[in-house]
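Lecture 7 notes: from sequence to structure.
We start with the chain below.
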Amino acid sequence: MLHRTCAARNPLPTTDAEAPRAETRSTIRLPRPLSGCSQSAASTRESKAVNQSDLIDHVARATGMTKADAGRAVEAVLGGIADEVAAGKEVRLNGFGIFSVAERAAREGRNPQTGQTIQIAASKAAKFSPAKALKDRLNPG
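Predicted structure tokens for the same chain:
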């Protein structure tokens, strides 16, 4: 069932081409978004991913901050992590994990269409290593 405020933004199909088949119409249930209607009905069916807006809503509820203040706080934290990792530093968050830079060496690869050997340049990528506390939370027992 659609969330009350979502129903106004996501009305049911109005034409036969948009409507699901009659035998499945009564069994379709849309999952409830985490908070409000920040995710479309289609995206909530595809995954359980939490986006930045959902995270901001959570911070606002948990701290009593306004959504605007929570948004600035989330942006500041994520920006700080990104800046430090881009500078080549590790960011260690106790009980959560470590954000760092992984360096990938140059290597040879193959073009899958032609089979021709190509050179793949060296690159850097962001890396996250979860802390033991986070792993234990994911795998209780």
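Points to note: The chain has three domains: 1-49, 50-89, 93-141. Residues 1-49 form one domain.
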